[in-house]
Design a protein that fits this description.
D-amino Acid Aminotransferase, Chain A, domain 1, 312 residues, Rossmann fold, 5-stranded antiparallel sheet, single chain, ATP-binding, 8-stranded mixed sheet, Dna Ligase, domain 1, 9 helices, globular
Amino acid sequence: MSLRVAIQMDHISSVNIHGDSTFRLALEAKARGHKLYHYAVGDLALKDGVLTTLAEPLDVRAEDGNHYSLGAREELNLADVDVILMRQDPPFDMGYITATHLLEHVHPKTLVVNNPLSVRNAPEKLFTTLFPGLMPPTLITSRADALRAFRAEHQDIIVKPLYGNGGAGVFRVKPDDENFNSLLEVFTAFYRLPIMAQRYLPEVRQGDKRIILIDGKPAGALNRVPAEGEARSNLHVGGRAEATTLTKREQEICEAIGPTLRDQGLIFVGIDVIGDWLTEINVTSPTGIQEIERFGGGNLAAQIWDAIEAKL
């Protein structure tokens, strides 16, 4: 089938064509004969219940320096397209939340991937708390006394903003670190939101595993090993990618969360696992499919499009 597909994303000129999952999905859609449109979240407009956007017809190519072409801008009624890929990067702020409300005006007649209602109700760090027994010891609070008590209990901890992404604002606080109170002051002043604290997992030195689930089923995985002297394993801050397979515990985690993901219309999800512990469920704009494919993990982009087309 030939579909009309609108991709809501940060501008395609900025993507790394060798690592960006949205670009890989666009290439696969083109290979299937789908017609692509490109637009930014700021181009949405809701008037009298009709959701439109200023969109540009999109062509993509796996060519460095020549990876896309855009046609003339046109006003596109999003009720007239078949699929919307909601792929703009976080932060998960009020702008992001507003976009999910707007897209609900066309979903599910137009299939939005992922379901905008479920994305709004599944902030990536909070969503994990719905699955007891899978997370490491975790505290979410704005209370300095509770955070100090958590540190006293676990000694070596990770502190991070609740709605951040890509490893931004993630700090490891060791037992002898004298900057903890100052760090809490900075978080309180800058974010004005609750903070997430977790027991530090030394297993991260062996890697932080990204597992891709497609319609609730594990489809591939990538191990990300932090650089020397770095607590974060994100690839864009120097983490090293490695081929990997799923352990029994990781399969159990996927089985525990998979039915919820499928029931909530979260077709393309990336989870993060360190050792035996689930640390995040990424539903907004998960990444990793190109790296997994390069390590021989199969054609994940094709599997994602198979799942999307099956929903239609």
